[in-house]
Amino acid sequence: MVSLLVKKGLTRLASSGAMAAFLLACFIALGLVYTFQNPLFSKPNETDHLAYVQFLQTNLSLPGLNPALVQRAADRAVYPEAHQPPLYYLVVAAATFPLGANNDIASFSSNPHFLSTEIGNKTGLVPIYPRAPLSADVLTIYVGRLVSLAFGALAAFYAYLAAKELLPEAAALLALAIFLFNPQYLFTSTAFGNDSAVATFSALVLFLALRAAQRGFTTQRGALLGIALGLATLSKLSGLALLVAVPVALAYDLRQHRQPKRSIAGAGAFGLLLMLLTGWWFLRNYIIYGDAFATGNILSYIGPRPTPFGLGDLEQILVYVWKSYWLDFSAGSLAFADSALYLGFGILVLCGLTGAILACKSQPQIRPFLLLLVLPMAAVLVSYLTLTAQTRLILGGGRLLFPAASGIAILLALGLASIVPTAKAQAWLTVGLTLALIAFAFFSPLYYIPQAYPKPTILAKLDEGHPRHRTTAHFGDKIQLMGYNVSPERRIIPGGNLRVTLYWQALGMPERDYSVFLQLLGKDCDPNDVLVSEDTFPAYGSFPTSQWRAGELVADQYVLKVPPGIKSLQEARLVIGMYDFGTKSRLPISMAQPGQVTDFMTISRFGLAPQTSAKVPEDHRLAEEMRVGDLAALVGRKVEVAPLAGSYRLSVRLYWQARARTQEDYAVFLHVNDSRGHLVAQHDGDPGGGCFPTSLWEPGDVIVDDHQVDLKLLNNDCLSWGLDKFG
């Protein structure tokens, strides 16, 4: 790329056509990655668009559905998108017709854990990473994505032609780069949906409007404009918003060229072609729905807004639109990027708009053309806000502004080029920003997609010494837990993370999708004392058990966030199991010992680390500590006597300080002996009331240990204590 700038002292790009072709090739290469590496259903409404295509293939007619008449499952599936114009769907239906239609979308099942976990479970259907052999449904989705990619590349070509009508070579290439390498545009242009199709013909409308304004609104250009706007409208209704560009182009032509007959003829050709292409669609909608635009279907499906639309709602929508215009790798508001990314794009946009305003002031001759860029943006945004202000949910997001994406890219490139003083600097700006955008578009899915949609890990074999903990537990008759890793292993910190990897092996082909549960339980594994839990299909919803194949090993990774407010210095246990979500029945777990069957399995015990070290009050501290072997020392005590009915209660608080680790669990004994050395009362128990066994002690821990002993008589008795092994 840099070599192209060397010629003529970097004052102009040597071959803008070659550079544009290179950028388009980069876009297509990245698009193929986005197409096949982005999981199914991570993109907006893919099953709804699939249902539309299948309806066309099955019925050989357009879906025209009255809400009151929707009865069949296939009709209910297509209804959310039945209001959409048909152009994109006809192309995909024709391309995939040999694959056949499957109207119940049977290859997929619902994900009952949708949005139930912070990691993964961002799709309502599974599986999201399909396995060969691919079903007709999956192949149709991939073909639909490739059709979108083709439209996305064509849209960029028209956007570049439009940019060349206004900008010098370097700035036009910058506009192309801004258009192409917006991560959200790549994500949307590889989705099974009609957004890139409407972006294509909207960019063509803008190009033709700019050309007609500058070179004359001839009959031929008017006819081409009518066809382009008609195709944009038949791709998606928002394409009709580009209509506002046509009067501006016509008015500029009349003012500059002063050939009213030619301009009127061009306008007539435009109107005639537009009416011929789209009139039947609006008439059909009016006959079926009583609404030429069929937007009533959206309101009836999503539901009307329950409260009046206010400024707070507007702010929420605009923030969502802003963020999702640049990056939201999900079906809607589920996988945003880091705030710094949006700040970076904000600075870029602010600089571009500032430069555009300065250019408008210093170059009055470009104002009509800026109007051609800005009016379609405003029309698309206003139409979006008008519709979403009426609905219960926020619609679509930033991708719904892509009919204006070509104008946005050109406006930003114009502004950025205007604040750069020389042609040489403009060329370097184009190179630097283009490389940065390509790099960001490449690395974004590598970073954000795995967080939202963890990909399953299938192993060929278990390595020696890995996993750290081996087991032979069978879950039902077709799944075995081969082992597990837990980190950290002995001590977890309130507010910290507990990382768990389960190594499953399919002994057969599970017929159902079983959910995995992981629970961090408090004392005694009490099921009512759940500190934190996670329920999901394996691999956070990306690899349901019905996809497993006999003999294969699955490394299933989880992250449990330990709540910050739980009591520290106590014992916790991690238990796991599997269950059928529909029936809530757990799979029986059979261990190595014959007859040992349960429905959950303890895989690890932990101590909950103190957030601050326990303190021994000065009046409780021993003058000289009493060591108990190498394990611990008694560093403090408090003894109180309280009278009871006919007896006394001795309350003893011991302060132990751990000095070494041990794998043994010791009991605390508390003995009361009379003056002759005879045992008259005793209490044996676990340290800390059983909440913190010695096997979880770490050097330096101070454990507060309370015990009580009841005495019939209070004499000159002797109190002794110590640690002893169980059993």
Task: Give a description of the structure.
It contains 18 helices and 21 strands. It is an alpha+beta fold and 727 residues long. It has three domains: 308 residues, no CATH class; 152 residues, Immunoglobulin-like (Sandwich); 108 residues, abc- transporter (atp binding component) like domain (Coagulation Factor XIII, Chain A, domain 1), CATH 2.70.50.60. The strands form five sheets. Strands 3-10-7-5-4-12-13 form a seven-stranded antiparallel beta sheet, with no helix packed on it. It has a five-stranded mixed beta sheet with strand order 6-14-11-8-9, with no helix packed on it. A hairpin with a 3-residue loop joins strand 15 and strand 16. It is elongated, with a radius of gyration of 35 Å. The N terminus is likely disordered.
> Distance N terminus to C terminus?
77 Å
Strand content bin: 15-25%
Low-confidence stretches: 1-14
The helicity comes to 40-55%
Structural class computed from helices and strand pairing? alpha+beta
Give the number of helices.
18
* Average pLDDT metric: 88
Q: Write out the strand line-up for the largest beta sheet, numbering strands in chain order.
A: 3-10-7-5-4-12-13
Beta-strand segment tally: 21
> What characteristic shape results from the CA principal axes?
elongated
**In this structure, how is the largest beta sheet organized?**
7 strands, antiparallel
**Overall tally of structural domains:** 3
Radius of gyration: 35 Å
